Amino acid sequence: MGGGVGGGADGPVRFDTKIAVLLRDDLETWQRLNVTAFLVSGLGTVLPEVVGEPYRDADGSSYLPMFRQPVLVFEGGKEAVTAAHERALRRGLPTAVFTSDLFATGHDRANRAAVAAVRKDQLDLVGIAVHGPRNSVDKVLKGSRMHG
């Protein structure tokens, strides 16, 4: 099971863990959507416990599984994203990064090369995704606000 607590079969669930995306507040709308999609895409591959069961409609059509819990999206200035990145790494939380360089690349190998070419404290981060215990993720996100 993936860390949920409380609630009945249909009642509200309070999760012990949190999936959060922090985006820089100066991104265009299309960039926010693209960055969010890329950032969360890796979580289910390394943290299979965050993914639920496949879906099936009443006609029997099958659909891919999705995260078992909400993905919370936050925003903040460049400094807030940089500070959150440092805190996430210091706490050892599973973290995904998206840098401004990735807007100019066209495929996965080029993305990895663009990140590998820059030291961690020099990355021009436009977004990060983190997963971990709720209180740890909250501390990582200090200084950011819910995306609205």
Strand content: 25-35%
Biggest sheet character: 5 strands, mixed
Structural class: alpha+beta
The total strand number stands at 9
Helical content class: 25-40%
Please describe what this structure looks like.
There is one protein chain. With 148 residues, this protein is an alpha+beta fold. Helices cover 32% and strands 26% of the residues. The protein has five helices and nine strands. The chain has a five-stranded mixed β-sheet, sandwiched between helices. Strands 1-2 form a two-stranded antiparallel sheet. Strands 4-5 form a two-stranded antiparallel ribbon. Strand 1 (4-5) and strand 2 form a beta hairpin. The protein is globular, with a radius of gyration of 16 Å.
What are the key terms here?
32% helix; 148 residues; 5-stranded mixed beta sheet; 5 helices; disordered N terminus
SSE blueprint and pairings:
Layout: E1 4-5, E2 14-15, E3 17-24, H1 29-41, H2 43-46, E4 55-56, E5 62-63, E6 71-76, H3 78-91, E7 95-99, H4 108-116, E8 125-133, H5 134-140, E9 145-146
Parallel strand pairs: 3-6
Antiparallel strand pairs: 1-2, 3-8, 4-5, 6-9, 7-8
Helix pairs in contact: 3-5
Please provide a brief summary of the model:
With 148 residues, the protein is of the alpha+beta class. It is built from 5 helices and 9 strands.
